[in-house]
Design goal:
Blueprint (H helix, E strand, L loop, with lengths): L11 E4 L2 E6 L7 H17 L7 E10 L4 E10 L18 E6 L7 E6 L8 E3 L2 E3 L11 H16 L9 E7 L5 E6 L5 H18 L5 E7 L2 H6 L3 E2 L3 H9 L2
Parallel strand pairs: 2-4, 5-10, 7-12
Antiparallel strand pairs: 1-9, 3-4, 5-8, 6-7, 6-11, 9-10
């Protein structure tokens, strides 16, 4: 008998074979909450000047559609709106929509990275990935677009480049606050190659004066390795790794 999966607070995993994304209009922010949002954003930028108020896609709903199929409703907004999460009692908060990549090695381990001090979550261990950016008006946000975004995040954060078509839709994560993560699986690569690419990425970034998004990588092969990482971890990491390594 295997041990039951760890239960991260409010995080569920959903098997998915088909995913459809539908755009909707972002709900308005009441005037009083707008003022609080701007104050919270200004305080966050003062604490971390690397934050920027760029466009981002947020999740407005998730519904099943057939066998192992789901529909994600998404809206266009900016990172500033996420500052509402710092405002007690705010009613206009929007959950995040993000992509992550499981990058395995050919000896059965998986790459994880630690967020650098210049990011919004310094010291947090997670899979390579990031918030979804909305496409230009008139272009669709679909699984292919999510795959391209995930491949770009993998390259930018680890130095590992691969065609987006090589990524496989693997599962969805759903947090208690409605945040949806779209998890992709990459083909296995030699561990030595992953280490070399990451080292070159950090070296090139330092030479150009750029702060890395990840300042450290690790290769894990068990639930015990996840625990041994120490520090903080993104909420989905344990359940995703349990599912990947489960016998």
């Amino acid at each position: 008998m295997t041990d039951p999966p760890p239960r991260a607070p409010g995080v569920g995993l959903l098997a998915v074979r088909r995913l459809r994304l539908v755009e909707a209009a972002a709900p308005p922010v009441p005037p009083e909450e707008q003022r609080a949002m701007h104050r919270a954003w200004d305080e966050a930028v003062h604490a971390n000047p690397s934050l920027f108020d760029g466009p981002v896609a947020a999740c407005a709903g998730l519904a099943p559609e057939g066998h192992h199929g789901f529909v994600v409703t998404w809206v266009r907004t900016t990172y500033r709106r996420h500052a509402l999460r710092r405002v007690p009692g705010a009613t206009a908060c929007l959950p995040s929509l993000f992509v992550s990549v499981l990058q395995p090695t050919d000896d059965g381990r998986v790459l994880v990275g630690r967020m650098s001090s210049s990011t919004a979550a310094p010291g947090r261990w997670q899979l390579p990935g990031g918030s979804v950016e909305p496409p230009p008006a008139g272009e669709p946000l679909d699984v292919a677009a999510l795959g391209r975004h995930a491949a770009r995040e993998l390259a930018e954060e680890t130095g590992v480049e691969l065609p987006a078509e090589d990524l496989t839709l693997w599962c969805l994560t759903r947090a208690e606050n409605g945040t949806i993560g779209v998890q992709f699986l990459a083909p296995a690569r030699p561990a030595s190659l992953l280490g070399e690419r990451f080292t070159v990425l950090l070296s090139d970034g330092t030479a150009r004066g750029n702060d890395p998004e990840l300042d450290r990588m690790a290769l894990i092969c068990s639930q015990a390795d996840v625990t041994a990482l120490g520090g903080t971890q993104v909420d989905y990491l344990e359940p995703v790794m349990y599912r990947y390594f489960a016998p």
